[in-house]
């Protein structure tokens, strides 16, 4: 069954990458959440999409130039100006702590494409081990050097290659870099890619899938998962498809 992942949490109704969005995803019944991590100046794993604070928070400048004690005071309401609960920037460990209460799968996207964030992989892996979440966390990145580094450090963890262009036979590429999954932009996905990936044991979870026709198609094709801003809508479509 195609697993439904809430992109940056239930970001259609709550500020992205906040506990409010993750809790909303759980309430909606999502199988998983997707989130983004950046590294602060003092080496903490902050859950936020952009390298800069400007778009989603009331702070400014690069995350890498802030210490956590100051970052933790910011609000990350983004466009949800009325939101008033759980709207701070979480640490990855806060999300992992919350996951003790549920069975949510967590796709951690390492946002180390613009800045390499030395030591980020080790910190994330250490946290996964601390919580015994080896079977509940998928590590993805557009930086595939980072994914191969994760594989070297922790071959038991599932890595997922994010990409947005038309990669040829991406399931073969995933095997070559020892990734257990591909996370392609939905624009690049073809039925053959879904079928060959699944047949070859490579998980495939396209992003960001918000159109009904795409969600229906992926579910009918037996795609491993999909990443959407609106997990509630995707779950309703999955129910319909499974009923027919
Ligand atoms: O992980 C899928 C998707 O989140 C990648 O793109 O820009 O939304 O982080 P972006
Ligand atoms: Ca992401």
TrEMBL record:
PANTHER family reported for this sequence: GLYCEROPHOSPHODIESTER PHOSPHODIESTERASE, CYTOPLASMIC (PTHR46211:SF1), GLYCEROPHOSPHORYL DIESTER PHOSPHODIESTERASE (PTHR46211)
Domain of life: Bacteria
UniProt cross-references to InterPro entries, sorted A to Z: GP_PDE_dom, PLC-like_Pdiesterase_TIM-brl
Protein name: Glycerophosphoryl diester phosphodiesterase
GP-PDE domain ranges (all copies): 2-238
Species annotation: Bacillus badius
PROSITE patterns: GP_PDE
């Amino acid at each position: 069954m195609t697993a439904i992942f809430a992109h940056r949490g239930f970001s259609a109704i709550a500020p992205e990458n906040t506990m409010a969005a993750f809790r909303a995803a759980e309430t909606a019944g999502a199988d998983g959440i997707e989130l983004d991590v950046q590294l602060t100046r003092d080496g903490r794993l902050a859950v936020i999409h952009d390298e800069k604070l400007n778009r989603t928070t009331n702070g400014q400048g690069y995350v890498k130039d802030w210490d956590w004690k100051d970052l933790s005071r910011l609000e990350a309401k983004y466009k949800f100006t009325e939101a008033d609960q759980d709207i701070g920037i979480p640490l990855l460990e806060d999300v992992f702590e919350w996951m003790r209460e549920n069975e949510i799968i967590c796709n951690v996207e390492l946002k180390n494409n613009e800045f390499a964030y030395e030591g980020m992989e080790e910190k994330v892996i250490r946290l996964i081990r601390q919580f015994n979440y080896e079977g509940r966390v998928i590590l993805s990145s557009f930086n595939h050097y980072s994914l191969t580094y994760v594989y070297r450090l922790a071959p038991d963890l599932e890595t997922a290659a994010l990409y947005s262009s038309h990669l040829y036979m991406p399931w073969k590429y995933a095997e070559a870099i020892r990734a257990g999954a591909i996370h392609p932009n939905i624009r690049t996905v073809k039925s053959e890619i879904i079928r060959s990936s699944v047949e070859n044991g490579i998980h495939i979870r396209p992003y960001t899938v918000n159109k009904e026709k795409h969600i229906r198609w992926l579910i009918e094709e037996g795609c491993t998962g999909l990443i959407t801003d609106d997990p509630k809508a995707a779950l309703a479509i999955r129910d319909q498809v499974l009923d027919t």
